[in-house]
Amino acid sequence: MQSDFGFEIEHELGDGTLARAGVITTPHGRIETPAFIVVGTKATVKAMVPEQVTAVHGQAVLANAYHLYLQPGHELIEQAGGLGKFMHWDGPTFTDSGGFQVLSLGSGFKKVLAMETDSLTAQEVITPVSQRKAFVDDDGVNFKSHIDGSMHRFTPEHSINVQHAIGADIMFAFDELTSLMDPYNYQVTSLARTHAWAERCLARIGQLRTEHPERPYQALFGVLQGAQYEDLRRQTARFLGERPFDGFGIGGALEKSQLGTIVRWVNEELPKHKPKHLLGISEPDDIFIAIENGVDTFDCVSPTRVGRNGGAYTFGGRINITAGRYRADFSPILEDCACYTCQNYTKAYVHHLFRAHERLSATLMSIHNEHFIIKLVSDIRASIIDGSFKELKAQWLAAYYDAKPAAPKT
Predict the structure, then answer these.
(1) Would you put residue 296 in left (φ > 0), alpha (ψ -120 to 50) or beta?
(2) Which positions ≥6 away from 123 have C-beta within 8 Å?
(3) Structure confidence at residue 406 (pLDDT)
(4) Residues of the chain with pLDDT under 50
(5) Under a CB-based contact definition with an 8 Å cutoff, are residues 297 and 275 in contact?
(6) SS (H, E, C) 88-139
(7) Are residues 125 and 179 in contact, defined by beta-carbon separation less than 8 angstroms?
(8) Mean residue pLDDT across the chain
(9) How far apart are CA 354 and CA 134, in angstroms?
(10) Catalytic residue among 4, 96, 285, 379, which?
């Protein structure tokens, strides 16, 4: 099978950073990097239709293998012609392996996996065994559906089968997720299991490519775990970097303050010429730090989730559009924003929609937030190419986190 997948580095910033601008080529189109990948968990970007995702300059969509396996079933999506045709999206697509959902939903890790552990104990993070909905062994994971409680099993091979049927351009190897509260010796055991699963994923996708040469090439990314231990993060980067993965996903438990350090550890070890994806970030400071340390793509549900709850991104930080001070504010959410929402609607109108519990509120806010984050990453890409990255970072973050009203020049 001839691969329609590739990655080209167009420009490296240097100056003590690992930031670079490039292009990922897939069977369904190009992705200019760095890029924010819009999340469409259940074959839909929440509150948006695909045409609206295109309008905010979304380049690719990431769906969730766990959720699509449970509903409507990967076989149905395969019958429909794959994820893109099923959801009427003609651009590149990603699917995750389902590992995060299987294990986090099963073991009660909640959101503390990504950043908020300072005031929590292990008992508050990890569900007691008697109450768990996921059970890990060396071969795979048994888990209960969050929908109806039925029992299911994911192995590395089954995860690849599901993702192959869904038909995404880029998929991720099945891995074991741990918590920061898991002790070091368990992290070591878990990482060895993830490495064995990674090799099984490679073997299975190789078989499927041979069995179905007529299908578009599906790239497989290895996933790096290791929590916050430098030896484990570098070890897994070297191990996976020696295998024929098409790219790599940086996952696992980490604290916000350690994000840049951990990303740099692994990117110093991984093959430079392959793309790196960071799973689950979208806050502006995290975006700058990730890109500065060598991340090419990343995804997060936050823009639409924040929007559905009344939060809007502005250059001076987030605002809550449901606040009373916006009731008679007839200005757009953000002056000079080119998104459909800001070009056509006022804060007062969107405020009214939320107060009236109208579903259009979620759509208009999601359009704005996705546009805002995608535009930020596009501006960062341009700054890498023209050498103004550090100036943009300093100016942009000062305006956003110091709540200054004026938009920075980009």
Answers:
(1) alpha
(2) none
(3) 42
(4) 1, 109-115, 117, 119-120, 123-125, 404-410
(5) yes
(6) CCCCCEEEECCHHHHHHHHHCCHHHHHCCCCCCCHHHHCCCHHHCCEEECCC
(7) yes
(8) 91
(9) 37
(10) 96
DSSP per-residue string spanning 48-85: --HHHHHHTT---EEEEHHHHHHTT-HHHHHHTTSHHH
Burial of 116 (0-12, 13-18, 19+ CB in 10 A): middle
Q: Which CATH number fits domain 6-300: 3.10.180.10, 3.40.309.10, 3.10.20.90, 3.20.20.105?
A: 3.20.20.105
Tokens of 347: 């804060």
What pLDDT, in 10s, does the model give residues 75-127?
999 999 999 999 999 999 999 987 776 766 655 544 444 445 454 455 444 55
Are the C-beta atoms of residues 249 and 290 closer than 8 Å to each other? no
Which amino acid appears at position 24 of this protein?
Answer: I
Q: What is the pLDDT of residues 365-378, one digit of tens each?
A: 999 999 999 999 99
Domain range list for the chain? 6-300, 308-401
Residue type at position 391: E
Task: List the 134-136 sheet strands across, edge first.
Answer: 134-136, 141-144, 151-154
Contacting residues for 247 by C-beta, under 8 A, at least 6 apart = 7, 24, 170, 219, 221, 222, 274, 275, 276, 277
Is 299 part of the annotated catalytic residue set? yes
Q: Which sign does the torsion angle of CA 64, 81, 208, 272 carry? A: negative
Nearest CA among 163, 172, 168 for reference residue 83: 168
The DSSP bridge pattern shows strands 141-144 and 134-136 to be: antiparallel
Length of the chain counted residue by residue: 410
Contact at 8 Å (CB) between 224 and 177?
Answer: no
Which of the residues 138, 299, 336, 402 is marked catalytic?
Answer: 299
The alpha carbon dihedral of 175, 178, 184, 190 has a sign of negative
Q: Which two tokens stand for residue 309?
A: 């709850």
